[in-house]
């Protein structure tokens, strides 16, 4: 009896603690979004209340969409992120297949070489990367960003994907070989479809740092035509510091795609982290 | 019988290898090399370790460098002492069997990790701003209004404030990794502990904590690498000068200003490469310490 009451008490306490921390996590985001729909007076007079018909206003969004070139920024971010993820998945899966499927001299060494990039951040090579991009005439192009992000995403992708490829049954591949499939068709037609869940996990892991990166867009592609959403909102907000409506609206617009993607992919993402991460 | 050359292995490896080597490894090596050169009379000249001497000892550089390094160490210590314990505590609570709404809590607490630094930085800048008054208003509700200060604007508290913002953003990662480690502990171990009368707090300290030490090791090294490579948050909250008065300057912002130039300061490629090399050596030292000392000593339990 007392044991049961003790346990209810404890569960109640745990819920209070978790709810408190959940509020801390969500409050800033919530605050930004509700205030982005209010007029200037209401933002300052009552920041903590939700917009009412009297205080509702879209002036911030009008400023953002009228002034900043957010459509271009979004487009740039989408192109860079999607192409880089596609390349990381394709090249990463191919390399992972070579490393996990075949025994050849230098196999382990190659694996270690590719693993360096998991721990050493690519940012430390920025000085020479910029130099190289200048020499190749790629500064202020999306190609520069795509190349950098592909290189940045590959090490972890190869690591995760080769772990998964080892679980694909040898019998299946050997059956394919007996049927006369080439090594390329075995990879593309037998193995790739089987590791699709792992590919999704890698895609999500690769996507977040690319979408959110500020460093490389700032250094390699700061031109108006190649700004990504992250850099674009940084600069836009910097210029409109005193226009609170516009700042809050820009922030809300930048949060939106992340929220949508998170709602769609959160199970994939959390399963990925909780499954393979602790090894 | 000699086997035919297996060209397909090369074809599979080549694209990844090319991009990775050309865009990541070679620039990294080139950066390390550049740190040994400087421009003398308009010509790049090999100067040995002179750049490092300047960085560590020259009046103009040393002050900024040691300041950034000190701030970076504080930045890291705050993460280790605040972010990781909170992460472990949250994970321990989430892993209580039969607790309801776990998915909701988990999803909500992980959300800030996905937002970009730009968003996080500006939101907190607004909240902590004395002009808007959200923070003082909320402190007023609990009767602590007198405690409010423009934390981000004061040299004494700015670094702590920025570090705590970063902790707020990243607490989801240790939470998730520890949560996964706790779920991986087999039920038999816990049942055996309960049969021996080890429950509640002492169960956590004596049974579960030793079993999740490898996961704590991983989050520590991830925090280390992330912190000594950090840049974005300080840049968005405090600008490239990492004010007030350089009090939030860390190695990443120093690297940016040095190599890229800022306002009146011209970009200096050699010194930029030198700072990047120092960052590389710090991270390399941390990772090696982890791989060769900590990870080997850590006992792993096979279930």
Automatic annotation (TrEMBL), chain A:
The keyword Transcription does not apply. Pfam families: BPD_transp_1. Keywords: Cell membrane, Membrane, Transmembrane, Transmembrane helix, Transport. Residues 74-265 form the ABC transmembrane type-1 domain. GO terms for cellular component: plasma membrane. It is a multi-pass membrane protein. Its main location: membrane. It is found in: Cell membrane. The keyword Cytoplasm does not apply. Signal peptide: none annotated. GO terms for biological process: transmembrane transport. The chain crosses the membrane at residues 12-34, 78-99, 111-130, 142-165, 186-211, 246-265. InterPro entries: MetI-like (IPR000515), MetI-like_sf (IPR035906). Belongs to the binding-protein-dependent transport system permease family. This is Sugar ABC transporter permease. It comes from Ensifer adhaerens.
